[in-house]
Amino acid sequence: MMTPEPRWFLGATENTPADRRFLERLRTLAPSWGAYGITAEQSAAIPLALPFVGVELAHLTTEYRWLWIKFLDVEEGLGFECSWGDITYLDDTGGTDGDIPLTSPDKTTTPEAFAERASDWVAAQASRAVLREEWHGLGRSTRWTFLDHGAVLDNTRTWPWRQRRTPDRVSTELAVSWIQQHQAG
């Protein structure tokens, strides 16, 4: 069995044995995210009363490029939540395509199983291609859209009327191309 990489999610809250088991398993799985350009240095832990950890998707140019995972251990059972966000994590708008809302407390699922689901979610989200559309000139505007479902990830909306015309620049942000570019340079 692989041992967890201790550098992932430094300072994460571990109040209960379930918290420790969840984080240990998540840390063991986290190195596999290297396939998407995610390293331990891009991981973070928010010091709250529960494990609240995240990873940054450096290949995205939007501020909304963090994947956050919360693990809940309460008397009624265990639960977790996975969501897109930014580094401020408390200002997030929520409801992004792909989020996993807080699950109902569950007494039958193990912390390790929740960690595996969270790890699968990170891999699935990190592998999604994002279309970046830019409108230049007075009142610059940018929109990031998931290519798989067409849902908007982020939108500067400085001048929404600009987005009614053809974008001045269009690019695709994809983890694989970012990895190739940074390995070559």
Please report the distance between the alpha carbons of the first and last residues: 34 Å
Structural class by secondary-structure content: alpha+beta
Largest beta-sheet characterization? 4 strands, antiparallel
- Mean pLDDT value: 86
Number of strands: 8
Tell me, what's the shape? Answer: elongated
Question: How does this model look, in words?
Answer:
The protein is of the alpha+beta class and 185 residues long. It has two domains: 17-126; 130-184, no CATH class. The protein contains three helices and eight strands. It has helices spanning 17-29, 111-126, 175-184, and strands at 43-45, 52-56, 66-74, 77-85, 130-135, 141-146, 152-155, 169-173. Strands 1-2-3-4 form a four-stranded antiparallel beta sheet, with helices on one face. A hairpin with a 5-residue loop joins strand 6 (141-146) and strand 7. Helix 1 runs parallel beside helix 2. The chain starts with 16 loop residues before the first helix and ends with a helix.
Task: Explain briefly what this protein structure is.
Helices cover 21% and strands 25% of the residues.
Features:
185 residues, alpha+beta, 2 domains, 8 strands, 25% strand
List the helices and strands and how they pair.
Layout: H1 17-29, E1 43-45, E2 52-56, E3 66-74, E4 77-85, H2 111-126, E5 130-135, E6 141-146, E7 152-155, E8 169-173, H3 175-184
Antiparallel strand pairs: 1-2, 2-3, 3-4, 5-6, 5-8, 6-7
Helix pairs in contact: 1-2
